[in-house]
Amino acid sequence: MTVFAYRLELPLVFRIFDIMLVEGMDVMLRIAFAIIKRSEAIILGMGFDEVLQYLKRGILDEYNEDHKKLVQDIYSVKLSSRKLNAYTTEHERHVAKAIQESLELNNLQVLQKQMMEHVRHLETKLASLNREHVELANELVSTRVEVTHRQEQNELYRQELSELSKALDVIPLEIERRSREKLDTLMEENNKLANDNAILEDKLASLEMTVIDLKMRFAESENDKEMVQRRLREMKKYMAVHT
């Protein structure tokens, strides 16, 4: 009623009061429906912000020019109890749907909060993984540098091994040549030693014969010595007797 008193002329306000006294407070719904139905075409052609401004200021201006229009529009609206119940049911359904959507929205907000926490956790984990990635990248670079250095060393070792292999291929031939030379030298020395040994054996045999001869002569000289000594003793005895 305050809206009507504020926006409509006083005689029209009195007409609305008269209708309310006759029909009761339920007529307020018919009045609102009649006003919106009158401006249906205008409202459908407006945007949302324009509709809000129109509902605040312009929707009742048409009735100030012709008071009978509002009364006619009110009584042209037929709202039976069945329709009101249907509208009530529809309204309750929309309210229940709105409540359900509100609950779903709350659940979504809770889920969003959980997801945000999960995202922050993932961001923290991602930052940690990025740090680990940087460390691994640095380690990989160091490893590659070391691998390159090792490859260069391996190449040097391969070259040295190749040279050693070539040297080893030559060494057996050189060893065989030197061994043959040394063997020939040893054989010559052995032959010489064999000849010298034969000569020494001949000399030894000659010396043994000489030693045997000397021993025989020594034995003979010992016998002669013993005979001389015996004769000397006999002569001493003889001289001792005849003295």
From TrEMBL:
Stretches of the chain forming a coiled coil according to its record: 112-146, 176-217
ATP-binding in keyword set: no
Spans traversing the lipid bilayer: none
Entries under Pfam families matching the protein: RabGap-TBC_2
Keyword RNA-binding: no
GO molecular function: GTPase activator activity; small GTPase binding
Domain (Rab-GAP TBC): residue spans on this chain: 1-86
Keywords of this entry: Coiled coil
InterPro entries named among the record's database cross-references: Rab-GAP-TBC_dom, Rab-GAP_TBC_sf, Rab_GAP_TBC_domain
Protein name as it appears in the record: Rab-GAP TBC domain-containing protein
Organism: Bifiguratus adelaidae
